[in-house]
Amino acid sequence: MSVDRVSLAVSSLEGIKPPTFLSIKAGDFVIIQATQQVAHQVNDDWWMGQIVFCEGGARDPRVNTMFQVADVDDGGIFWVNGDEVTHVVRSLDGLALNA
Question: For the whole model, what pTM was predicted?
Answer without folding.
Answer: 0.68
